[in-house]
Design goal:
The chain is about 75% helix and about 0% strand. With about 70 residues, the chain is mostly helical. The chain is globular and about 35 Å long.
């Protein structure tokens, strides 16, 4: 849960307790727990979360590739 909250804070969904944060946390937790309709859905949720975080950090090029690789392998 701590990692999930850290991710929400890093990508801008951490402001307050609005619907966007709630949706992000639900998506993140379902991806991390393996819930969410199977492996493909889980991978898709993970990809969305990692992309959103990379966008929030304004990563480009090789930095973004490395970040995405690390994020998706967690």
């Amino acid at each position: 849960m701590k990692v999930c909250n850290d991710q929400a804070n890093a990508n801008g969904s951490g402001e307050g307790k609005g619907e966007e944060r709630k949706a992000f946390l639900e998506e993140w937790l379902s991806a991390k727990s393996g819930k969410g309709g199977g492996g493909k859905e889980t991978q898709q949720n993970k990809m969305k979360a990692c992309n959103k975080e990379a966008d929030g950090k304004e990563l480009k090029g090789d930095e973004r590739k490395k970040f995405m690789s690390d994020c998706l392998s967690d």
